[in-house]
Design goal:
Layout: H1 10-13, E1 22-25, E2 28-31, H2 37-56, E3 60-64, E4 69-72, E5 75-77, E6 81-85, E7 98-99, E8 104-108, H3 114-128, E9 132-137, E10 142-149, E11 152-160, E12 164-165, E13 175-176, H4 177-180
Parallel strand pairs: 4-7, 8-9
Antiparallel strand pairs: 1-2, 3-6, 4-5, 6-8, 9-10, 10-11, 12-13
């Protein structure tokens, strides 16, 4: 749901109550309902596997939603999961938000966010330098891995149930999709 009205900035966004889920894309305040239980199970499964890999190699930090990512003053998003390499951890304000593009952004589709995640955020993440973007689709049991191509993000590989998720950004990462989508 888009709330019509003035263009919002990060400073105005910070005044919102903590229990309101919203993002700012192109200056518009976009409200998002809480995700369903299946979404959260998938998030937990993927988060656990990703964190184990990152921690074992001391590769950086993995953060779950809701974590504000300030790409610009009028671009504030909350990826379901984000990863920042050890070399770039200075963009994490431990008492605030992440200021800059994460190296990896993960979005798990839900009926309320599919268009936003597949179109708006894809363009936004590409424009701001996200190095890898995963679109997780619970309805199809797929994970699309996108990487930069000029100023956009293009599909590197599409993984389906029965396959293992891999990442060009995280060599050695292997996550069976049967574990990601396990209920």
């Amino acid at each position: 749901m888009t709330i019509p009205g003035p263009r919002y900035t990060y400073e105005e966004y910070r005044l919102m109550p903590d229990d309101v889920r919203c993002e700012i894309i192109e200056g518009e305040l976009l409200m998002t309902p809480a995700p369903n239980a299946r979404h959260q199970l998938i998030l937990s499964n993927l988060l656990f596997a990703l964190m184990a890999h990152v921690k074992s190699g001391n590769l950086g930090k993995v953060l779950p939603a809701p974590t504000d990512v300030v790409l610009a003053q009028d671009q504030v998003v909350q990826p379901d999961i984000l990863f920042i390499t050890r070399e770039r951890q200075q963009i994490i304000d431990l008492l605030g938000a992440v200021h800059g593009a994460p190296d990896l952004a993960v979005e798990i589709l839900s009926p309320a966010t599919t268009g936003r995640d597949k179109v708006m955020k894809r363009k936004l993440y590409g424009r701001h330098g996200v190095r890898e973007y995963w679109i997780v689709d619970p309805a199809t049991g797929t994970v699309e891995v996108l990487v930069p191509d000029a100023s956009d993000l293009e599909t590197w590989r599409m993984f389906q149930l029965g396959q293992e998720l891999m990442s060009p950004l995280l060599p050695g990462l292997v996550i069976p999709l049967s574990e990601v989508f396990a209920e």
